[in-house]
Amino acid sequence: MSGGWSAFVEATVRTATPLGLAALGELVVERAGIINIGLEGVIIAGSFGALVGATHAGIAGGYAAATLCGVGVAFAFAIFAVWLRADQIITGTAVTLLGLGLAGTLYRAMYGASGAALTIPTSRALAIPILSRIPVVGAGLFDQPIVTYVFYLMTPCLWWWMYHTHAGLATRAVGESPSAAEAAGVRTNRVRLWSLLFGGAAGGLAGGTLVLAQAGTFAEGMSAGRGFIAIAIVVLGRWHPLGVGIAALVFGAASALQYVLQALGLNLPYQLFLAFPYLLTLVALAGVAGRVRAPAWLARVDEG
Amino acid sequence: MPAVSELRMGRLLAPTLIAALVVATGVLLAIGGYDVGRAAEALVNGSVGSWYAIGSATLVRATPLILTGLAVALAFRAGVFNIGAEGQFLVGAAAAAAIALTLPKTPSLILILLALVVGAIAGAVWAWIAAVLRSRFHVLEVISTIMLNFVAAFLVSYLVRGPLQEPTHVYPQTESIVAAAQLPRFGPTTRLHLGFVLALLACAVAWWAVRYTAAGFRLRVVGANPSAARSAGKIDVDRVTTRVFLLSGALSGLAGAIEVCGVTYALYENISPGYGYTAIAVALLARLDPAAVIATGILFGALEAGAGAMQRDANVPSVVVSVIEAGIILALVAADRARAMRTRSAVA
User: Fold this and answer.
1) The CATH number of domain B35-315 is 1.10.10
2) Among B116, B131, B231, B305, which residue has the least CB neighbours within 10 Å?
3) Cβ–Cβ under 8 Å, residues A6 and A54
4) Cα radius of gyration rounded to whole Å, chain B
5) Dihedral, CA atoms, A78, A82, A86, A89, nearest 10 degrees?
6) A113: chain B residues, CB-CB within 8 Å
7) How far is the CA of B57 from the CAs of A32, A195, B50, B317, in angstroms?
């Protein structure tokens, strides 16, 4: 069964990587008191950017373009949420529509006419010496595309940044009490903007991961609700970097269970397996959401 | 000093953004190598170019948009962010199709009524899941309704490939519903059906109820200020939001049922080209006013009908409409905020 276990760990990490990246980015945004419901639009922009970048400048170009596109969409959100202090739920919903629509339109305009399914090179797995030799879990955890290691590293780095640096403290202060932060000399809008741009970069990278490390191609709507699942993972991770990193892996594992169930040969409709991550999100949120404390100022609009 | 620049921006922002949007879309299409003139012609011809286009394309498209737009408007009015009209529409369509397929011998009037009512109930049940998650488990309804949209899409996919698949088991769709279950049309040459009138009626009743009834008053108060509604008005906020959520789901489910009984006569996977998402733009453009939803629903119906023609005649991808929809929402939000800021700086 070790082959089966390996496949299970591999599927776990595969699901967790883009979700974890996007969720860690959203975590910083939410700790600064803003909820970017437009994360879905950020992710699909990243996916499309990855396609364009990779066809012109290789895999590295793909990741760079994905990150930039994510930042661009997040900046559009920031204009409304930070500068105009608009309702974040409505703006975020519009940004999601905008991202999905723009990516779809541009994709059909730039590539659709040819009719051929585009394939682009995917980034190779990079085995980490020694660690990747660990029996059962080694290959699944440590013989992965490079973005997976970015996710692994980002989790402790963010924890350190958030709790041991001045900038991290300022970000948390803005999310808890912007007026107190302002009084202490924190430039609240600047903190919000940088948080959003970081969240955009991470979300764009997550979208790039789908194209460059997994599918090897772009499809309209391929973000498939991952932006919203990532927002749920921030809640499941209790707004803490380590919690979010672990929650992404746990979610990945739970959703990889569908492959185990399929392998058991249960005669269930395949749509049930496809719906599984979404049902899982609902159940997990129902179990956790009421019992954790969100940043005090989350999604509130200050009139200052 | 920043107040001055905000003031200038406020007056110009919405028209500027909309104009920029149109120009940008045109430029985008021109860069993509499309014939912009031909696309514009197709857009107009396909939506308002003839009586046939108005009745059989624009108003037929507008019907589900008016109903789902009304559903979203009422929910948002009460502070319930129901982004789930899409999923509620799908389960409503599925339920109506199931009724029409299993009871083909029922007299026409009863069968149609039954299909529409069961469709509405199915939509309400789907919304009820998110309502309970919100009121009892504090789950943000934006997330839960989106998740339920995906689940509903997979449910329809399962139904049309499983229990409800047409008898030859070749195509992923149901067989056509019997004529007795089909909504009557306004004449032999038009595709416009009775559902359009039902949509108008729903808006009229909702407009009156929101304005003149106690329930409508509670809805508005809860939406405007839930804590004041609770403390000063002794209103059970959770009960009001749950009811609005159910009503919103029922309207979206009804929209799905009407689409099956009035337009498609069958259930298949892509039965909704994103009506539930367009509904958000419809509702916001109507400023959440049930009567104005009729106008904005028809506007977006024309836009979608025109976009369909644009794709056929000028090969322009019809997803471009969702860019325009998103742009309209953002332009409105920006205009509102700019106005609010202007008012505040005038007071100060």
Assistant:
1) no
2) B231
3) no
4) 21
5) 60
6) 33, 315
7) 47, 45, 10, 18
Look at residue B11 in the predicted model and tell me its pLDDT.
Answer: 54
Positive or negative, the Cα torsion across B156, B162, B164, B168? positive
Query: Domain spans of chain A?
Result: 2-114+154-291
CB contact under 8 A, A289 and B140: yes
User: Which residue intervals of B138-194 are DSSP H helices?
Assistant: 141-161
ipTM > 0.90, yes or no: no
User: What type of residue is B182?
Assistant: Q
Number of inter-chain CB pairs under 8 A, A vs B? 143
Hey, which residues 246-285 in chain A have their CB within 8 Å of chain B? 269, 271-272, 274-275, 278-279, 281-282, 285
Q: Please give the average pLDDT of every successive group of 10 residues along chain B, which has 348 residues.
A: 43 62 76 81 88 92 97 95 96 97 94 97 98 91 92 96 91 93 92 96 96 93 88 87 97 98 95 91 89 92 88 82 84 82 68
> Cα separation of A72 and A59, whole Å?
20
Q: A77 falls in which pLDDT band (50, 70, 90)?
A: very high
Residue A246, SS3 per DSSP: helix
Helix (H) or strand (E) holding A11: helix A2-31
The residue in chain A having the minimum alpha-carbon distance to the alpha carbon of residue B139 is A289
Tell how far CA A182 is from the center of its chain: 29
Cα→Cα distances A30→A24, A172, A247, B25, B86, Å: 10, 9, 16, 32, 27
Report the alpha-carbon distance of residue B314 to residue B189 in Å, rounded: 26
> Do the Cβ atoms of B275 and B322 come closer than 8 Å?
no
Q: Name the nearest CA neighbour of A15 among A190, A189, A257, A183.
A: A257
Whether residue A109 and residue B139 make contact (CB cut-off 8 A), yes or no, is no
Q: Could you tell me the residue ranges of all domains in chain B? A: 35-315
Q: Do A104 and B317 make contact, defined as CB atoms within 8 angstroms?
A: yes
Q: What is the CATH number of domain A2-114+154-291?
A: 1.10.3470
Q: Which residues contact B74 (CB under 8 A, 6 or more apart)?
A: B206, B210, B219, B244, B247, B248, B251, B288, B290
Contact A59, B307 (CB under 8 A): no
Is the predicted pLDDT of residue A241 greater than 90, yes or no? yes
Give the global pTM: 0.89
Residues of A in contact with B143 (CB under 8 A): 228, 231-232, 281, 285
What residues are paired with A127 via a beta bridge?
A143
Residues of B in contact with A105 (CB under 8 A): 28, 317, 319-320, 323
